[in-house]
């Protein structure tokens, strides 16, 4: 059924193992990547079983950038890489959303981590005020720098709330940032965090059904797919097309 | 345990198959109808299994009005009716929440679709501003027209957010519309979409525990039932009664 | 993995039986108590099976204070105690969040109910305006009175929304109440209802990772645990420590 080549990354904020397996079994066709949100991996009893479910379904996975930051901040990156290897994580996320790591420092870690796995590099801060002070030009420059450093994709921060990073406090996209990104970065290499329907609709409307969407909640996997396909009111008139020469039967 | 004859319609926004089965097995006693929300049916891998679970539990089901609108808009109503027949859907929802179909045109489709299944006909638009411009008299007139056209029930739009249609942007009911409906339409034939606790409480308080409630989230099935029964703080003093001649032990 | 001695109480708002079992199996290590929210127990078909799952996992459980209030209000406390005995509930919650029961009257019920089970006694009202009128001194006095009456713990009301009781309508803690509680009550004997991440972060920041947290949603069990451990952006810099003599690798 799926026709869209746009990537869908689902965030797991701590599903029980049965629910996780049920999700992947039922909706795995619409999921390209799973992110074990922030540091949940360290308190997930059945992490190896979850990893196995994803391996069987040929779905990639990685750990939230906060786990990388936590290990960097506490001087234990070697333990982080051990975890990646042991679980078979397919990607690494590098970010500086919380700890005081500047952009050039982050790009350097993108370069280093790319030796081990394809890197998703996040741009934007978790703190709403700090993110709001980033100009469109700074967003573009950081994304280009990370891609030049070898990042597989760059990720625009929006948290789980959809009210920070590339999103405004009212939940809508920062259009100035979006326009700058569209004009200056290859959007096939950008994953837009879009945890809310508002953001999903605005991104699909602006970039088309193939936009890469991240931080999709487990409960919204089918919902996001229907938005891509014009099967929901919010995008029906944008995406669904009336066959030529028809009056649509109305 | 259930004493209320009021109907409860649950919206499935895309539950995995295991979770759906679990829901119906555990809480099926409190569910009269399931609506596969908007166009999710088309991206649900195990739709036939979900339909089977409902058949076994003697619970009716149908597809969201948006799926009807999508097929009407793209000139493929025959495919829509094929889907209804193949899955054994027990009802059809007719709506004009998104596409440019006027009220008389919708009533005509209510008439046609009633040949195939009992029809739930929705009144109100998904767009908040358009809905807000509908006067109470227009709501009543549309509901009567749809019932006259043969609708089994009419449904008052409130979306999944509870902030459009018969709901205001602040999440409360439009009292003017509710009062007009109560005064002019047989409310046993009205299904009020009530996806939030705020709306559920306001409707139960205004219409009593037997009001027909729709768009109840899977996670809220027991919650809505407790509201009907006065087993939650919001309705306890309205619904629960102190035996006469008792001081309630306080 | 868990190092925190702080209690975590999870509220079950009506999970299907399979989902409930999955939750306890996967995340039971991080759950100390389960509260069957408000009066959901009376409409839970498999209540005995849920109770059995908790017994096997050595997790305590009890019924929401509203169920106590409902039985008190309708003059049927004997039926309430029968339910406690039959299900093997390990605790009793006494509250006056909804019915007109004054503080001394509540303390008297704390005393009586303590004969049967350890009592969690709730302070604060479900109605936001009534709660807002309670002064910090009144919160402290009520908590002390309940503890003096034999309560095992006192619970600060915040509902499921986190916008009433000890929380303000904007979702943040009432700092005046929190400061008065910290200064005058043994916080090891206080369970703070904290159904939102905002409240969890503010409490962990103010009281440390061992604060007792209540009304944690099933979906947030791992999330709350990561906040305690500094594995989420919101608390990383507060809780996680850089080994001395290290530059944190940045």
TrEMBL record, chains A, B, C:
Pfam families: ComA (PF02679)
Superkingdom per UniProt: Bacteria
InterPro entries for this protein: Aldolase_TIM (IPR013785), ComA_synth (IPR003830), ComA_synth_sf (IPR036112)
Transmembrane portions of the chain: none
Family per record: Belongs to the phosphosulfolactate synthase family.
UniProt protein name: Phosphosulfolactate synthase
Organism (species): Dactylosporangium salmoneum
